[in-house]
Amino acid sequence: MDIKKLIRPELVTMKSYAPIEPTEVLSRRAELPVDKVVKLDGNENPYGCSPRVYQALAAYPYYHNYPDPEQRELRKALEEYTGLGRRHIVCGMGSDELIDLVLRLFLEPGEEVINCPPTFGMYPFSTDICGGRIVDVPRTEDFALDVSSMKKGLTRQTKVIFVASPNNPTGNSSTKKEIMELIDTGKIVVVDEAYFEFSNATVADSVPSYPNLVVLRTFSKWAGLAGLRIGYGFFPVDAADYLMKIKPPYNINAAAQAAVLASLADMEYLRANVARIVAERQRLFGKLKELDWLKPYPSQANFILCSLSYSLPCHSEGAKRPKNLAKEIWQGLRKKGIFVRYFDTPRLKNCLRISVGRPEDTDALIEALKTLPVIATLSEAKKKQSRDERKAK
Ligand SMILES: Cc1ncc(COP(=O)(O)O)c(C=O)c1O
């Protein structure tokens, strides 16, 4: 029996999501002890979670019982943290699950979803799985939303528009004006604020005023809980009620709930870590900018996208041009135990995304970048090229 014949045909051919790997796997790949791995590929929190999370997890007495399907304590604590009423709030197994649930709620087979690449890969992934159709409206040269093209791309079949703000992997935020223009189209607008705590820009306060605005957040980044999988969203109250109806009843496990409650009771500690990451983002940006062959893009998140600048001789005639330099750099860093993100797409082929780590991670990264053999060879070629040009004059 060929099982493929029984699977939905569009799922047989759909593109897989390219996930990152955990530290233990990376340490085996790099043949380095875990504590020598510099993990800058997942936009995770280099300072981990609050120490109170470990205490709460050790002390929690009810792992043998199912968790609360109504998420009562969580929604109450999130109301206090965010200032938005609990009836607007639904928690998911990471914001990944909420992306999926929103599409399950609104999308009928064949309906369209507006996606603005380069952006987070889960929007097309979940759209495919939900039987929808992705309509890509690429961002502009500087990665801003192309709002007029987005509006032109709308049809009667369009149901949902996804906007990550700050956007992953480009780091820039959308303006409130742009979001409002999209809300005015009447389509469901999902603003994914996974990196909100690093940017402090939000449209969440508008959720109670619009029946078609959804805002998603997560504990994975600022609170260091990526491994426990918990996020939340703000929804119009009716939509929140339907989401509560269709979500898997026990989607938030007891450990994730205990961890979130402990985190929200330790805000001073977590906010201090966010401040350290934001300060390090600034320092990393400056260090990357000093390398004349890299162009970092300003970021409001906990990562920086860089493109390879065209001052490298690999872009000029005559010099030996590596087929895919960004990939070579990515591989060269991996050999040194430094993991960053490379995207194999036409628009990002020339780019690397680097998560903001601790100061020592920045130092190790910059040192490694400066000493990569491929860069040394190209720098030599560049010097020679300049000498030859001077001679020719
Ligand atoms: C824009 C964006 N949204 C959502 C997520 C997923 O977050 P979670 O860990 O809560 O599923 C990420 C993770 O990288 C992201 O970059």
What does this structure look like?
With about 400 residues, the chain is an alpha/beta fold. It has 2 domains: about 5-45 and about 270-390, Aspartate Aminotransferase, domain 1; about 50-265, Aspartate Aminotransferase, domain 2 (3-Layer(aba) Sandwich), CATH 3.40.640. About 40% of the residues lie in helices and about 15% in strands. It contains 15 helices and 13 strands. The protein has helices spanning about 10-15, 25-30, 50-60, 70-80, 95-105, 120-130, 145-150, 175-185, 195-200, 235-245, 255-265, 265-290, 325-335, 360-370, 375-390; strands at about 40, 90, 110-115, 135, 160-165, 190, 215-220, 230-235, 295, 305-310, 340, 340, 350-355. The chain has a 7-stranded mixed β-sheet, sandwiched between helices. Helix 3 (about 50-60) packs across helix 11 (about 255-265), helix 5 packs across helix 6 and helix 5 (about 95-105) crosses helix 10 (about 235-245). The protein is globular. The N and C termini lie far apart (about 75 Å). Pyridoxal-5'-phosphate binds near residues 43, 95, 120, 192 and 231.
Features of the shown structure:
393 residues, binds pyridoxal-5'-phosphate, alpha/beta, 2 domains, single chain
Q: What small molecules does the structure contain?
A: pyridoxal-5'-phosphate
- Rough outline: globular
Secondary structure: number of strands: 13
Return the CATH class of the largest domain.
Answer: Alpha Beta
The portion of residues assigned to helices is 40-55%
Largest sheet: 7 strands, mixed
Along the chain, the helix and strand elements come as HHEHHEHEHEHEHEHEEHHHEEHEEEHH
CATH topology-level fold name of the largest domain: Aspartate Aminotransferase, domain 2
Q: How many whole angstroms does the radius of gyration measure?
A: 23 Å
Which superfamily, in CATH terms, is the homologous superfamily of the largest domain? Answer: Type I PLP-dependent aspartate aminotransferase-like (Major domain)
- Specify the oligomeric state: single chain
Distance between the termini: 73 Å
Task: Output the structural class.
Answer: alpha/beta
**Helix count, per DSSP?**
15
**Level-2 CATH architecture of the largest domain:** 3-Layer(aba) Sandwich
How much of the residues is beta strand, in percent?
A: 5-15%
Q: How are the strands of the largest sheet arranged?
A: 2-8-7-6-5-3-4
Give the mean pLDDT.
Answer: 94
Q: List the domain count as a whole number.
A: 2
Uncertain runs are none
